[in-house]
Amino acid sequence: MKGNGKDRFDEYLGVVGKDGFSSGCFYFEVQVKEQTKWDLGVTRESAKRGGIVLSPDDGYWIVRKRDGEYRARDSSDYSLSLSVNPQRVGVFVDYEKGLVCFNDVESKSHIYSYTDQCFNEKLYPFVCLGYWRNGNSTPLIICDDY
Questions:
Q1: What CATH number corresponds to the domain at position 48?
Q2: Number of independent structural domains in the chain
Q3: pTM of the predicted model, to two decimals?
Q4: Which of 1, 2, 60, 113 lies at 20 to 30 Å from 9 by C-alpha?
Q5: 34-92 tens-digit pLDDT
Q6: Which long-range contacts (CB under 8 A, 24 or more apart) does 84-88 make?
Q7: Domain range holding 31?
Q8: Closest CA relative to residue 40, chosen from 92, 108, 118, 94
């Protein structure tokens, strides 16, 4: 986790990666296997940690799983129809193109993409186990073996 107490989330069980990116492309994978609630993607450096909606308006480009449903939030809330439940999600960012793309690593299928975004500060990986609480003790794991 990056930073100190001011960087902690008020309502979300989230953490921000310690390494940020302000140019080029970067990629990371998150193991979500057996976890029932999650949000993952990227956040901008100045994004608030409390009183927020996880959306690009508040500096979060994410996909989420809640109650067996997958969603993304851009200008509105999107329900995502996936043919399989992802076990590992890949997140690819092209800073200059304003692209954040999510893929199911094992099935090699596209989950969702944010396109034509305008990034003007560092972006950090973001993972979260939901809002307020999560009774499932299975961790989200940012993988380094891809």
A1: 2.60.120.920
A2: 1
A3: 0.88
A4: 113
A5: 888 899 999 999 888 776 778 999 999 999 998 889 999 887 888 999 888 999 999 99
A6: 84/109, 86/32, 86/111, 87/31, 87/32, 87/33, 88/29, 88/30, 88/31, 88/32, 88/33, 88/143
A7: 5-143
A8: 92
